[in-house]
Design brief:
Distance between the termini: 7 Å
Order of helices and strands: HHEHHE
Strand content: under 5%
Number of strands: 2
Number of helices: 4
Largest sheet: 2 strands, antiparallel
Radius of gyration: 17 Å
Shape: elongated
Amino acid sequence: MPVDEASLGVRYDVERSGAPTVRSALLHLVTSIPAALMLWVLGIVSAVLWLIAVLTILLHRTVPASIYDFQRGVLRAFGNLLAHHASLVDGAAPLRFDTGPEAGAPPSDRDQPHALAQ
């Protein structure tokens, strides 16, 4: 199992904006209810896809790129909501779901199944 930073599948960076206050933190808790509901539904779908990924790993020793991208998008959405709850970013609760590759990743990375390290 690779453990160096270059082989990790998920990286998340937060660029702070604004200064957190008690009022903004409480407002963020209330305004993030729709995003939390969206993540609840995505979490259920993610759990089902996780089981499918386990089967494909057992049978083919790879994870399909579509499942890998979806799981990456769920992790990004959870990270965005966490940054919003911690009042690290200003604005409305994040309702975006980005499954694309990281900036700088080769285009072919997205089209290939993700093989397991031996």
